[in-house]
Amino acid sequence: MHSTNEVHELLCMEIWSGHKSVENNAISRGLEAWIFSEPFHGDSNGGDVHYMSLCVGGIVTRLVLADVSGHGSEVAETSIALRRLLRKFMNSKSQDRLVAAINREFTALEECSRFATAVVITYLSHKQRLLVTNAGHPNPLFFSKSTDEWKYLCEEAATDGGFEETPSNLPLGILDSTAYTEFSLPIREGDMLILYTDAFVEAMDGDGKQFGEVGLKATVEAISRDLTCAEYGQQVRLAVAAFTSGVCSDDETLIVLRFGKGKSSPRIMERLGGYSSVLLGK
What we know:
- By secondary structure, the chain is of the alpha+beta class.
- Helix content is 24%, strand content 34%.
- The chain has five helices and 15 strands.
- It has helices at residues 73-89, 96-107, 212-222, 229-244, 268-280, and strands at 2-9, 15-20, 22-28, 31-38, 45-54, 60-68, 116-124, 129-135, 141-144, 149-152, 156-159, 162-165, 183-186, 192-196, 252-259.
- It has a seven-stranded mixed sheet, covered by helices on one side.
- The two termini are 28 Å apart.
- Residues 156-168 and 274-280 have low confidence and may be disordered.
């Protein structure tokens, strides 16, 4: 697994990461991230795909985490398709067309029995607002700095007034006509978001008991808020490893995000570089 203490700063029109083994730190406009992904059995290519992008104007940061059926070359092909779609829609503030396009891509592969669960998030730094779409994926965990409380974003739409129930979304590739709900919530400095694949909730101890959402929530609540995203994520991994006695039976991907004050607008040369990428089709 490739690991580094360096921090990667996303540039305008950049799409970063992929589907290989990785442990990296990144920053974008108004947020910092730690991304850990390790394929099962130490394979070079796992079934988890993760991408992070920044729009040409430097205000739309988007992150996709998908758990794709299959491994190896099949997932590599899917990863390329997801990257292409992410670039196509990366300058759109809404993510509904991107999710619909990804679903069509998977539905077209029906004969291959290819499907995926996925969570897609978009952070609009100029509005300090987070958009979330969940396609059958494990529920993200959200920490509100103002209430000092962790919540699961599960079958709920976050609004300025709180959380409202909304129907669950199907995994990608099941039905071409599936409608995916995009909901939003306001973000404040110090808020956090944790995305993960099912290895972290379906992990079992020697007696066959699952770690579950209860175990994961209790774990994150017990961790000091003063830690970095990387330290926070490592504490979660240690807790799950202790529960399973170090036994893992699936690909693992864990992403920890912390939101800050935001950054100034991109420098003119950075934005020009982004526009050049668009014109050259890179």
